Amino acid sequence: MTYEFDLSVVVTAHSETFVCGPTMRAADASIDAARAAGFSVQAIIALDNATPQTAAYFNQAAFDHWDRVVLTQGDLGRARNEMVTQHTKGSAIAFLDADDLFSENWLAEGMKRLRTAQARGERVIVHPELNWLFDAAASVYWNPEQDDPLWTPYYLYTMNYYDSLCLVPHEAHLEVPYVHRDIPNGLSFQDWQFSIETLHAGWRHAVARDTIIFKRRRDNSLVTESQGRRAIVRSLEAMRIDKVASLGAATQVSPALTVTTPCAVPDPMPVAQMTVDPKTVVTLSPEEAQKVAAGEMKAPLPPVLRGRNPPLPNPLPHYGAIFAQRVAQGLGRAEHRTGAPVYPTVQAQFDVAYYLARYRDLARAPKLDPVGHWLRAGSNEGRMPNHWFDPKRYLARYEDVRKSKVNPFYHFLTQGRDEGRIAAPFPQFDAMAALIGLDPDEAQQLWIARYTDLRTRLESGDLGAQVTAAARFDPLVEATWAEALQIKVAPFHTAPVVNRTVAMHRAHAQADHRPAKAVIMVNRPRWGGARRMEGHLADALVARYGADQVVVVSTDASGDMPAHKFPDGVRYVELQSCIEGKLKGDLTERLLVEFLRSLAPEVAFNVNSRLMWDALNIYGNALAASMRLYGCLFCNERTPMGYLTGYPLRRFYRTFDVLSGVFTDSAFLADELRTAHVLPPEAGARVQVLRGPVDHSVQVVDAPAPVLDATSDAAPRRPRIFWAGRMDAQKRIDLVFDIARSMPEADFHLWGETVMGGQSLPAALPNMTLNAPYARFADLPLDEADMWLYTAAWDGIPQMLLEVGMTGLPVVSSTAGGTPEVIRDGLGTLLPKAAGAPDYVAAIRAVLADPAEARTQGQALRRSLIETHTKEAYAQALGQVLDMAPAR
Fold this sequence. Notes:
Layout: E1 5-13, H1 20-36, E2 41-48, H2 52-58, E3 67-71, H3 76-86, E4 90-97, E5 101-102, H4 106-119, E6 124-135, E7 139-142, E8 167-169, H5 170-175, H6 190-200, E9 204-217, H7 222-228, H8 286-293, H9 321-331, H10 342-349, H11 352-358, H12 360-363, H13 370-378, H14 391-397, H15 399-404, H16 408-416, H17 429-435, H18 440-460, H19 462-471, H20 481-484, E10 488-489, H21 495-510, E11 518-522, H22 532-545, E12 550-554, E13 571-574, H23 587-598, E14 603-607, H24 610-624, E15 628-633, E16 637-638, E17 644-645, H25 647-655, E18 661-664, H26 667-676, H27 681-684, E19 687-689, E20 720-724, H28 733-742, E21 747-751, E22 768-771, E23 787-790, H29 799-805, E24 811-814, E25 829-831, H30 837-849, H31 851-868, H32 871-882
Parallel strand pairs: 1-2, 1-4, 2-3, 6-9, 7-10, 11-12, 11-14, 12-13, 14-15, 15-18, 18-19, 20-21, 20-23, 21-22, 23-24, 24-25
Antiparallel strand pairs: 4-8, 5-9, 6-7, 16-17
């Protein structure tokens, strides 16, 4: 294809007006530099659904040297696509948002980088080296070359390496057009998607050295709106669990940078020198010096040196004279302790500019010696003496240093560095290093080298000169200098970013880096070997999709999953075990969402996962765009004051619109949901009861010897009543104690533990035995039981009743939720909701008085369950909802 221009520059505007002045002036300067470098440039202003004020602003004579195009797309992605296909005539295209700024050298250097790569036959997209955020937010981060050793595709689950303000060959835009944004449904970040899709299509992402995009953050900017709504990028095939590791690998042709790994921490940047007045030095005897070095005594503080301030560096650092003067003041004051080597050793690697930029409270104290402050207080406060050493993290990592009481930075500089110890401020540094294929020391040295190189070029090189040039157009860019001295070097962006990236990779490893067609999310590994809802779901889904296509994820708490909970071959992931500590805000929900989408399932079920319910509140629409979502609800709970609460009340109405169906274990709750929310028939059909199948292998237990045996001379046997469950308010453990207290003639055997917190158990009773939770129901000595007691105040259809019912044991149960659907007339003793301890005592004594009749009813209950709770009926009820047309 023949192009009229080398480059088309397109400024897109919608509602911007006077904020565009700096944008257009900087764009003109960058275009002039590109033309001076020999490139022909087409300059276009694209007015997409522009407000009258915006149209009037851009139609002024000052911009007559730009072409103007009026669009009616109302979407940035679609507007860019129309510009590519119908209006641009350049072989490459550079977009610019109307409130951002180009560095003056960006277009010229970007085109040179692009042409060099194209001459080698490479399919390349070129990015600026830095993104410099300013105005309502301040941050600076480095864009790595795609073939840089620090680059990993897993980072793209957490952050976007590359902004859309890049230099893109025309054919790349035609091959990978932008998608439209869908912020109401939580889908946005077209630039993020463009990065991933171009990587997947084989386009290599390169960087033009010493170039910058200045990204203005405003309260109503598109990125701010997307982040405020907590939108996410669309679910993409390239980010699937079994494909992400190879994303971008095929395009790593030839490195654009010479990457070297230094063998030692780089020397400090040159600093101004200071003359020391010997009269101000405190001298110590050799013995005192030895005690100070060993930490056995504190060194006396000498007077602060009050010599002349060192001169400002020449040339002046690009961050300006005022801050340079403040740095010089810090360098001009010292609290040197003769006889102790700590101060000069630390001072040699202490970054005064970084210290004052990061800790603004100290920048306002011109008489302070930064090194002396750090040694006295800053180290203990967790302040960092430079970008790459974290004293708090170093002490947490190395117990021997912690016990030695030696200053951690001094230890690292004199011993730890040579031993290959890690000083970086990231809890998951080692894991991230392994993820990018480096040992921790290699990764640390490379990360420090990257930072040091960028700092040097920012302070005294062409990179910082571009900031000074941009400040001519908008002085606000200089307000970000303090953050620039803390420049973020991906993938070691921040501790939360590292944590999330590593956690995602660990979750992938637990899932064996394979996708799944069905995912079940549970809150925790529930005790007991019974299949319960999640186990029965897994059974049915294995029958439908195959065991290798089912994954169970525990989201809220870690722990050992009981054996036989799920069919063989079902994978199990403990999400919390993948995370270091806790993630703030909604970052854990975001981690779950990205992990879930990476599995690329057809269906996903929430079985009591609070994290998933929370994620559905935020990301439900975005998730529903790529999979069918189902909620499983059991029963409501009650607060300590007795008021109803719980997932059915709080979550159903919030999420039903994004769910393809809701499953309950009882008709009681299903009817309650349909009635309470006045569901129309088609919506009511999406609420289905799943009756947990019973285990036919459970044998009828033999009845114990009679309580009173007239044929034996032995003393009468005491009746034994069994009870098991959570020892919480729902199960009315207090009622159990009252019953046992009223029946001193019987022994009560309980299994369980407190799960929900709350009040402690009553005082132990002589006729009560408390046991830990059982691993498998079959492990209980059921042949010693005379009957089973169930006392819940609210419930669905408890799995325990189904298990007990299959043994033939007599049952005395409360009326709670779905229990009447199991304990019907002639199948056991069902007490009314208002029954108290005397009613239960009378019912239990009636069962014990006629054990034969009680056993007959127990056998009838078993036959009833075998008939009504079958795997076939369960699979049919599940399939009835799964086979419906999706709700979305």
